[in-house]
Amino acid sequence: MRKYAFLALIAVIAAAPSSATAQAKGSNGGPVVKSQGHPIEFVRKGTEIVFYVGDDDGSPLSTKDMRGRATIQDGGKTVTVPLAPANPNLMAGKLQAELSPKAIVVFSASLHGHSLTARYTAE
């Protein structure tokens, strides 16, 4: 049942017009999505996933009090990876295995009641 709930979450996020899709490359080499004006760059390093979060003006946004997760659909399986804040503007998590090409990664985070969501396709 939980598996279906995650699949439904991904379907809703993918279909939502406010959910952004990656458009450009960021300074760290990953795709950047803007969510509510905040640029969020997704970078994967082996089994580590990192999201660089920017403020409305593009400057680094402190993630000290941010809570987040990444929902990943890869090879027909859906997993949720908790993300931990790291200085100065990172949210990072560990995967059980490397992502395959075309895996879908959905970043979800909140900070002071402000929600951010971004969708990426692994390359």
Task: Describe it.
With 123 residues, the chain is mainly β. It has one domain (2-121): Immunoglobulin-like, CATH 2.60.40. It is 11% helix and 50% strand. The protein contains one helix and ten strands. It has one helix at 2-15, and strands at 20-21, 24-25, 31-35, 38-45, 48-53, 67-74, 77-86, 90-94, 104-111, 114-121. It has a ten-stranded mixed sheet, with helices on one face. A hairpin with a 2-residue loop joins strand 4 (38-45) and strand 5 (48-53). The chain is globular. The relative contact order is 0.23.
Mean pLDDT: 86
Runs with pLDDT <50, length 5+?
Answer: 5-9, 14-19
Radius of gyration: 13 Å
Distance between the termini: 29 Å
- At CATH's second level, what is the architecture? Sandwich
Structural class: mainly beta
Given the structure, what is the number of helices? 1
Number of strands: 10
- In helices, the fraction of residues equals 10-25%
Placed side by side, the strands forming the largest sheet appear as: 1-10-9-6-7-8-5-4-3-2
Order of helices and strands: HEEEEEEEEEE
Tally of structural domains:
1
What does the overall shape look like? globular
